[in-house]
Amino acid sequence: MDKLIETIVSAIEDKKGKNIVSLNLSGFDGAICSHFVVCNADSTTQVCAIAAEIEEKVFEKLGEKVWRIEGQQNGVWVAMDYVDVVVHIFQTELRSFYKLEELWADAPLVKYEYEE
After folding, report:
1. Structure pTM?
2. Between the N and C ends of the chain, which has fewer C-beta atoms within 10 Å?
3. What are phi and psi of 17, to 5 degrees?
4. Which among 74, 107, 102 is positioned nearest to 89, based on CA atoms?
């Protein structure tokens, strides 16, 4: 699990994703997965590029394929399901609107600092 999250975060950083966090949902009954990784990007092109980089890097390093991916058609919010980890890549304005982290405010949160 840690290697998967680490690989996902690295791929996001490679494509200059912003405000990267992971939420540990393993202590919540009814949670759909054990971790969320959330980030945002400034354009639909960047959102899609981040998703493609995650898919490629995870397969290359860990041999895992994404189980399901949604939102690539519009590129404003892409969700990638790796069963235990779900990645949410938002266009910046949409992330501010949905405030996904606030829905899981009790979950332990890790912020990833990235310097350009």
Report:
1. 0.93
2. C
3. -65, 155
4. 74
Question: Pairing mode, if any, of strands 68-70 and 77-81?
Answer: antiparallel
* Residue 53 C-alpha from the chain's centroid: 12
3-state secondary structure of 113: coil
| Among the ranges given (33-37, 64-68, 76-80, 96-100), the one the predictor scored with the smallest mean pLDDT | 96-100
Instruction: Write the single-letter amino acid at 13.
Output: E
Q: Which amino acid is at 31?
A: A
CB 21 within 8 A of CB 13: no
Q: In what order do the strands lie in the sheet with 109-112?
A: 68-70, 77-81, 85-91, 35-41, 18-24, 109-112
Residue identified by tokens 């590029």 is 49
Our CA angle for 61, 116, 92, nearest 5°, is 85
